[in-house]
Request: fold
Amino acid sequence: MRHDGTEDMPTSPLRAIAESQWAPFNYMRAACQERHGCGLYDLPLPERLQAFACCMPDDLVPTTSAYEERMAKEREEADLLGILDAIELPKPLIDSKK
Reply:
């Protein structure tokens, strides 16, 4: 038995085919759970690959209210960070225009 809870893949080609025939993604699901802490179908994909996702939370689907709420929150956070950057910028001690 492997440390992720799956059995080792059989070394016999016919047994390996039989092992993977009824659960072809068993090893991928176990590896995804071990490495990323979520199931294979819940693994977040990069934005350019979201069309291939099996399940997407509502806040990633542009036509939902959850998406609009997330975008509004991100805009608010960006505005706040802009304000903080403006406040924290050091002011020159000598006026360089003179």
